[in-house]
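Bench notes, afternoon.
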Amino acid sequence: MKRVALYAAALGFVVFAGFPFYWMLVTTFKQNRDLYVGASDLSHIPWIFNDPPTLEHVKLLFGQTDFPRWVLNTLLVVAAVVVITVAVAVPAGYSLARLAGRWGERMGMGIFFTYLIPPTLLFVPFSRLVSLLGLQNSLASLILIYPTMTIPFCTWLVMGFLRSVPWEIEEQAMIDGYSRLAVILKVAPRLIVPGILTVVVFSFTLVMQEFVYALTFISSVEKMTVSLGVPIALVRGDVYHWGALMAAALFISIPLAIVYNLFIDRFIQGFTMGAVKG
C-alpha cells in the first residue's frame, strides 16, 4: 500500500508538471473555431482535438513574425551575459569568501541586497546611461545591463559554494607551486563545477524571461528578444493569437526542459553544496 501511494503521488506530480506542455501542444495545433468555442456547447471538450489539427498557427509564427531572428538575438545576449557573469562572479566570490575575512560575508550580503532592487526603479537611470554611451536600440545595451542583475546574486552563490570546499585543497595547490591568481583561475573553478553550472542556469533563465529592460532599450523589431517580440507581435490590441503564442512557448520551453533535465543532478548539487559550510 505504501508503494502504491508513492507511485500515485509521483504520477500526480508528473501530470501536474506535464499538463502545461500538453496544453501548449494542443493549443498550438487546434483550429481557431476549436479554440474559441463557448462554454454553452456541452459537446465541446477543451483538452482534446474536436476538429482536425492544423499548422496555421505555426505558419503564422514563422511566416509572419521574426521569431527565428528573435531566438538568435536571445541566444547571443544569453551567451554574452553568461560569460560576463561567470568571469566576474567566480573571482569576486572567491575573493570575498577567502581573502576578505569576516568583512567578506558582510560585503557579500550587501552585494546580494543590490539584486533585490526592483528593475522598475533602475530602468530610468539605466536609460540615461545607455543614452550617454550611444547604445540605444542595440543588443549591446542588454548585454551591458543584464549583468547588473546576474552578478550580485551569482557572486553571493559562489561564496556559499566555496565555503563548502576545504581550504586545505587550495593551500596544497599553492604548496605545489600555484600562485594565488592561478588558484583562482584554474583550481577554484574545478572545485565548484556544480556551483558554476548553477550560476549559468540562473543567468540563462533570468535573461530568457526578462521583459522590462528589453522593452525600454529595444525598439526595432529585428533586434528584439523572444520575451519582447512574441507578445508585441502576437498580442494586437485586445486580440490574442493564442495558437501562435502557445507555439512560441512550446518551441522555446521543450529545448529548455530537455537541457534542465540533462543537468538537473548537478544543478541540485550546486544549491545543496552552497548550503553546507565547510
